[in-house]
Each structure stands twice: as C-alpha cells, then as structure tokens.
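Morning run. Coffee first, then this:
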Amino acid sequence: MSEGDQAPSFHAEVFVRRSVLFLVVNAGVALLFSDCGPLPPVIEPAPNGAVVRSARIGLYTKAVLTKKEPDTLLAEDGTICRVPADRFRDTAAHTLVYCNWQ
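And here it is:
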C-alpha cells in the first residue's frame, strides 16, 4: 500500500473515535442534568390530615408504592386506586399499574 492509502483510514478512525467520545460525553451531560434525581415531596402535612399536591388524578400508569388490604393501591405521589381483590392480589409493590387514581 502506498502512504496515500493509509491516510484516509487513519482519518476515518480518528473521526469515529471522536464521534463516539462526543456521544458518550453528551449522554453523560444529559443524564447529569435530567430529572433522574429524587422526586419532590407531594404529600404535605396539614392541620386536618395530609394534603396531596401536584398529583395527577385520573387514568394514568403509576408505580405502586405500597398496598393496603383489602383493595387499595397507593402510588408514589400519594394518590390511591381501589381495585378488585384478584387485581390487588396480583399487583406487587413497585410495579407499574394503569388505574383511575384519585
């Protein structure tokens, strides 16, 4: 091979390495500034109990924080969903559930 044949492959290799480095750095910056941190509290104490603020009410898919016998699922934002006994039994904590959250 002549010296001229090696130059394009060298430049292509440098280009690929820089492109990969660029993508990795941008992905890291995106994760750093994304909403991956802890969620702000949405359940606040009040004189007559607790107040749920900023919660989405209605049909949504949410993560189940905990369950209360016999039929209540509690989401991470403080909303609840009442379900039939078989659905309650089959739903594990920390799973996503599509429900009419109130």
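The chain has a mean pLDDT of 78. Good start to the day.
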